[in-house]
Structures are given as C-alpha cells and as structure tokens.
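[User]
Protein folding is very new to me. Any chance you could explain this protein sequence and its structure tokens? I have pasted everything here:
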Amino acid sequence: MFPILASNNPIHHILDKPVPGAESFTIHMASLCIAAMVTLLILRYSAKRIAVGNQDQGTDRYLTKGRIPQVIEVITIYLRDNVISPVLGKDTNRFLPYLLSVFYFILTCNLLGMIPFADIQTVISRLTTDGEMDIVFFGGTATSNINVTIGLALVSFFVIQVHAFKSLGIGGWAHHLTGGAPLYLLPIMLPIEFMGMFIKPAALAIRLFANMVGGHTMLAVLTMFGMMAFEATSSWVLTGSVGLVATVAAVAISFLELFVAFLQAFIFMFLTTVFIGQMSHHGDEHEDHALEAVSH
C-alpha cells in the first residue's frame, strides 16, 4: 500500500488540482463549497437547539439541546464576551455575525482538511482503474491555498475600510492615516501607513496559509519515512520499525494540527476584530483598552 498512500512529493496532497471533467473548477473550490454548506447547516441546526423553547416546556426551554450546539454556544459566548466585546465595545453586535462567520467557516475548512477525503478517493480510483488514474473531486485543506486565504483577507480588508469611512469620515480616516504626525513627517508617515493598510490583511492571509501548509507538509513527510526506508533497504523489519515510529509521531502531530486548526481560525478572527477596533471612533480610554487586549 505504500505506493498508493505515499508520494515522493510531500506537498502532493496539498496542491490544488482540477476536478476531473471540469478544468476551471478545482478540488479546493469544491472543498470551499462543501465547507460553506457544512458550516451553514451546523450553525442553523445549533441555532434552533440554542433558541429558547415554548413556555409549556418549563425551565427546560432555556437548556441547549445536543452536544454540538452546546459546544458552539460556549465558544460563541466566550468569543463575544472575552474577545470581541472588549475590543469593539458598542460595535460588538454590529460585527458579531461577520466575525463569528469568519471564525466558524475557517475552522470548518481546517477541520475538513484533516479528514483524508482526497487520499480515500485516490486509493479507490487507483484500485478500480488498475493504478492508472487519480480521480479526486474534493478534499484537502482549502485554507492551505494562498488564493483562498487572500480572498478571505480581502473581505476583511473591505469590511475594515468601509467601517473606517463610516465611523471616522474621510477627514478622520486621513487623520488616522497620518497618525497625527506633524507636517514635516508626512512624507515618511504616509507611505508607511498606506502600506500598513495592505500589510495587515496580507499578514492574515500569509499566516493562515503558512500554518496550514506547514502542518500538512510535516504529516506528509512523516508518512513518507516508511516508504523511503523500504526503498533504501528493502527490509520489512526496518521498514516496520521506522513506520511505527513515524505513525506515532504522525498521531502526535495530528493532535497538534487539531489545536492549530482552532488557533488559526481564532487568530484570523481576532486580528480582524483588532483592525476594525483600530478604525473605530472612540476615546483614548477605549483605545488603550483595545491595545491592552491585543497585548494579552
């Protein structure tokens, strides 16, 4: 099974590929659509379970029903009360739907990417076509595609800038761009601040992309160790020993990847919240509070 499950290229399973029969539609596009549908279905299901029931249910109508809705309710309340609200203040409810949608969508993409859908389809296609074709319709981690993360970052960029114009006005936006610096520093401040407008969303895109690619590449390298040992020695004993160690390491890395899946969704959402908060009209006290939240 090594020739089927492994590849000499550790990023073979990360690269985007066209869906068979549709050259303009790729497996990462299909994965994005599936992740969007899964996110929508789970959140709608959870919303119905979290909502207050009828009065004839007594006090039970306030209880959230189901394990998944309970987990989502806890995560949502924590993000709202301890992450978003301290930064955005009165604007929390305004941006809460977008920020939570970004968090849960990226999290769904990351988690679905940990399930080897593409590898399963590859194995089935090679077994049914005598190893001649790799037929894959969806799979992989969509957030390991730089185009996907740039798209997500661009949406956040427009949300941030539209909010800035609405909250600060053109004059306030220009004043924020100059940082209140004296006129003789404007030739230095303006290019730096202007580039910073685009560097912030670029950092969101690159951070998410790099972490997803790095984790999956590490897992792919670990799965290659057994195959490389067999090709080098042709010894099943040595191959089995190396494969056992690699499997244990891969399981450990998989748990780390699970943590990273949550962490990167949180970081993308949190930094978007911070960037929105920086473009909000507020006093020095609120600004200091937001900066304090960032430092923690």
